[in-house]
């Protein structure tokens, strides 16, 4: 048998497949091979997370510093801020302190974050309403003849509650003076007047009663003057009880040991209405209306204080926050919390979680404040804490040769 003829064409290379003999043998070049995906080193992941956290911390510090600067500039000066300033005053101390520690640990933007936190702390410490001196103040004995003054926002009197429980709570203080706000009830969101004088006289026999609008002042001592301050130019009342809107300060003068003491029972209009939607125009319309009313009432109060030469005790629900420029209206008077033992004398809401100081008491500098204390009322009575003062009046000033009394050494400040 003869051999196949040579056609002159190369024989085809065997293709892949079983039995084709195409397996790569040892030492053969397998060709290019794709590299496996790179796996980030754990150190790189931690560095990226640290940078992100540092950036977020810087952003938080910047936002809080901006909020603090705006509050310093506008609180008590611009009505719109009343509807925005919702942070508890203590936050202006707590937040910067909480930012300082992690800011020192992150390398990214460390200096900028520390500077912003320090700025917030510098501006916010005076707005936090903290009284460090309370930690060092001891409870010295109170003179036996010291006056006991109580001020309290009763939150709709004893509506929906037990009257006897309400009056028993008040009577246990055995106060010489009671400055009580919200002597009223409510129907829905409308305030309505009440007449509970018969029960009040039975609960407090021998006390003199001064009642105007939603205010009630009780005094063991003779009353020489009762006057509700009604500013001129107030807007029309928002409901059918004008005195609720038009009377926000009740002045009552009493005679104590031959000395006249002027009491200012005060409840300023709210800063905002928490029941309104802040995303609606009606919310800000109401904020502006309340701010206008506040201004007129504060001007009337300041004018009355400036014309009054008697020692003064002023107390009530001022709806004013620490650090607010609204406190300028009370210059010349002393914040009695300076004589208290509460580091953070917040009054709202009542209970251990009190975060906002809305209720205040002030007194003339020559009145000796022995003690201020706060009390949480029994559950269901009120959303405000009660303030109790123990104080002594200054001695009666001597008369001049011409029969007149000496003028005060320090003129009262007119804002």
TrEMBL record:
<keyword id="KW-0472">Membrane</keyword>
<dbReference type="Pfam" id="PF03372">
    <property type="entry name" value="Exo_endo_phos"/>
</dbReference>
<feature type="domain" description="Endonuclease/exonuclease/phosphatase">
    <location>
        <begin position="150"/>
        <end position="380"/>
    </location>
</feature>
<dbReference type="GO" id="GO:0004519">
    <property type="term" value="F:endonuclease activity"/>
</dbReference>
<keyword id="KW-0378">Hydrolase</keyword>
<feature type="transmembrane region" description="Helical">
    <location>
        <begin position="113"/>
        <end position="130"/>
    </location>
</feature>
<feature type="region of interest" description="Disordered">
    <location>
        <begin position="394"/>
        <end position="415"/>
    </location>
</feature>
<keyword id="KW-1133">Transmembrane helix</keyword>
<feature type="region of interest" description="Disordered">
    <location>
        <begin position="1"/>
        <end position="47"/>
    </location>
</feature>
<feature type="transmembrane region" description="Helical">
    <location>
        <begin position="55"/>
        <end position="74"/>
    </location>
</feature>
<protein>
    <submittedName>
        <fullName>Endonuclease</fullName>
    </submittedName>
</protein>
<feature type="transmembrane region" description="Helical">
    <location>
        <begin position="86"/>
        <end position="106"/>
    </location>
</feature>
<dbReference type="InterPro" id="IPR036691">
    <property type="entry name" value="Endo/exonu/phosph_ase_sf"/>
</dbReference>
<keyword id="KW-0540">Nuclease</keyword>
<keyword id="KW-0255">Endonuclease</keyword>
<keyword id="KW-0812">Transmembrane</keyword>
<dbReference type="InterPro" id="IPR005135">
    <property type="entry name" value="Endo/exonuclease/phosphatase"/>
</dbReference>
